[in-house]
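In this section we walk through a basic example: taking a raw amino acid sequence and producing a predicted 3D structure, encoded as discrete structure tokens. The instruction is simple. Fold the sequence below.
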Amino acid sequence: MRRPLAISLAAALVVALGVGAWVQARARGPAVPVVVAARGSVVQTLVAVGRVMPAAEVTFRAREAGVVTQVTADVGDAVPAGQVVVQLDAREAEAALTQARATLAQAKAQVRDVRAVAGPAARSSLDEAQANLDEAEAQLVRDEALFRGGAITAAALDQSRARAQVTRSRQRSAELGAAALARNGTQWQMAIAAEAVADAGVALAEARVDRLRFVAPAAGVITSREVDPGDVVQVGAEVAKMVMEGPTRLVIEPDEKSLRVLRVEQLALASPEAFPELRFAARVQSIAPAVDPLRGTVEVRLAVDESPAELRTEMTVSVEIAVDRIESTVTLPIHVVRDLASGSPWVVTIEDGQARRRELTLGPRGDERVAVLDGIDEGAVVVDAPARGWGADLLDGARVRTAAPVATELASP
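The resulting token sequence is shown next.
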């Protein structure tokens, strides 16, 4: 009888101890997992997908209909500035240019003739006519005096008057001719006008010749070629494309809400989807002044100072822009903060064995941690509730204890 009694007493003792421990645990509150607020740095980033854009792209389109006579570059070829990429048949245009240049040469020769030959000759003729007129008028004065003295007849006086009239007419004609050939004269002005018209004709002919050839405006690479020799192209048809040499640019189109954090000269890291292990630096170069009304996005361009050789035009890239950063501040894991997206985020802390609700003022938010500007201090013990289902029913002031051990999580630098 003693052995069953001993067993019963032992069992009763164990039950009593268990009940006591349970009562004590209930008095101390439930054990919950926690994290500790740690000091560190937080970098807030904006991630967007974009594309690689060249420094500039040129699309060659036909400005005149014609037949392709020559193609000097293929897709992928590097071409220097000034190289003719595609040539249309220009025989007729070049013949018109030759004719226009000949007409201009004739007009220039006429101007030179007026300036160097006709003008001086007209002035010489005027001087001669003036001298003859002076002599004839002087002779007429003498003959009139002789007639009054009876030395000559009336017929002789009439002849003297006729000679004076003829020389006066010749002088007037010479005067008009010299005036026409002077710099403000009609013949001079007509010669100058003819030269200007001929010069414009040459410019028009040269422009037409230029419209029939497609020249690389700067060094670059051919990205497409749509024609071959013998093809007939119409006005506006695409002939070829090329990208210019120069700094690589990235273009992203984040949501317009990002405008509140985006700034020119912000630093970024980019990675092409084709080479995810490749990361290179970029910086925000410009932010579009307008928002796309259909998509609600804004175009952001980034400059790349050192472009990796693997990049290709129109390649898809992931861009991570550092839009905000704070050093040496109190930080928490993002998942422990309640109502993070609202205007009143909060956490549950454990202070002296009791749960306390603490309102927070937050700063930059990184991928994993968030900066706490106000509400708790470094070393505060915070219930790790959202991730594990704890804390939703903890009332302010409720008894609670930490689940051992309490680990301090350090923020990433």
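Looking at the output, two observations stand out. The mean pLDDT is 80. The first helix runs from residue 2 to 28. In the next section we compare this with other chains.
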